[in-house]
Structures are given as C-alpha cells and as structure tokens.
Design a protein that fits this description.
213 residues; alpha/beta; Rossmann fold; Helicase, Ruva Protein, domain 3; 5-stranded parallel beta sheet; 8 helices; 5 strands; 46% helix
C-alpha cells in the first residue's frame, strides 16, 4: 500500500498568482493592493475551512518576508508575522499574540492573521479579539467543486502532467473536502506515476486509497 505518500507536501511556496479565487476575486484584488502598500494596516482573513486561508497567508508570508506560524506564535522576523488559525491558540499563546500584535504596530511591522470566524465571534480573549478587528478585515467564501477542480488541474499542470478530469472529479466526490488534502493527493499521484511508470488514472489513484479499491 502507498498511503504514506499522502504525507508529501505541495512543492514550492504558494503564491497569490496560483490562488484559485472562485467567489473571492474581490478579496484577492484587495490583498494585492494591500501588499503593495509601504505601510500596511493589520490584516485579518476569515472564513470556513476550504476557502484558501492558509494558501493566502503562506503566499503573503513568502512575498513579504513574514514569519509564518499556525496555531502557535513566532517572532515577527524579519518583516512581520502571518499567524494562521488564530482561533486555535491556547490561553498562553493568546497573550503572546496580543503582545506581538502591539509590537508589530509599534515597530511598523506587517501583521496578518486568519481564523474561522469574524473577530468578535472567535473563542479568544476580548483584548485579542479587539486587536484582530483593527485594520482590514476580509471574509473569504468557500470554493465550489468547480473551483476545486480548476485548482487540481492547475496543480497537475505545474507538476508537468495533464490530470484527467475524471481523476479530478473522483478526488472531489470521493475524498476529503479539504482542498489542501486534495492537492497533496495530486502530488502523491505524480510521484507514484513516476515511480511505477504508469499514467495517472483512476485505477492508479485507487492504489493510494485502498478503501476505494
């Protein structure tokens, strides 16, 4: 069985250019404008799982040289901090995040965070909630299956192969609804195809997913 191949992570840092916006085209345009500013207000992105928050935070972190952290805190070096899944922070890291927010503002460093809900609806300390509500707050909408299909086909193209739409549809309708997991599966298929010198087909996909064989 080849299930361990699913641990492979996408190759290269995500970028704003390869984000499949779907219903979030206006948000993406606002992010591009925000990123071009010399002095950026704090930014908070929120929305349900599967709307691309992590992709966007990693893309901004790479483009703006921000430290990236998920469900934890990190020193905002060299230029600021991108704090993903802020609503999963435990009590002590919430205090650290509050202090880091104030530090970023005082030193004119860039602050970006994401969460599953609007700031005041998050299960966080009131002072951290209020800080997240400062600056630019943008809501992301979930991607449709059609948007996810575009993302899977585009990932395959970047890896250097053509993904049969039937394979993409199988992934979307039979597996996790999480787009990150779907993209990791495309990466795994690419590797397995090269290892076994077989084309990427639904039967090959099923060898990665024994419960679907």
């Amino acid at each position: 069985m080849q299930q361990l191949i699913l641990d492979i992570r996408p190759q290269g840092a995500p970028t704003l250019a390869d984000y499949v916006a779907g219903p979030n085209g206006e948000v993406l345009a606002q992010l591009r404008h925000w990123a071009r500013q010399n002095e950026r207000p704090p930014l908070y992105l929120w929305g349900p799982a599967d709307c691309g928050k992590t992709h966007l935070l990693k893309a901004l972190a790479a483009e703006l040289r921000l430290a990236y952290a998920c469900g934890a805190v990190a020193s905002p070096e060299p230029a600021g901090l991108a704090l993903d899944d802020v609503d999963t922070l435990a009590a002590a890291p919430q205090i650290e995040a509050f202090d880091l927010f104030n530090r970023c503002c005082a030193q004119r460093l860039t602050w970006v965070a994401s969460g599953s809900n609007a700031p005041m609806a998050l299960p966080l300390r009131a002072d951290l909630q209020s800080r997240l509500a400062w600056g630019l707050v943008l809501r992301l909408r979930p991607l449709s299956d059609a948007d996810k299909r575009v993302a899977l086909l585009a990932r395959a193209e970047r890896l250097g192969f053509r993904l049969d739409p039937a394979v993409a549809d199988y992934v979307i309708t039979r597996r996790s609804r999480d787009l990150g997991q779907m993209l990791a599966l495309v990466d795994a298929l690419d590797r397995l195809s090269l290892e076994q010198k077989r084309p990427v087909t639904v039967p090959l996909l099923k060898t990665l997913l024994p419960d679907q064989a």
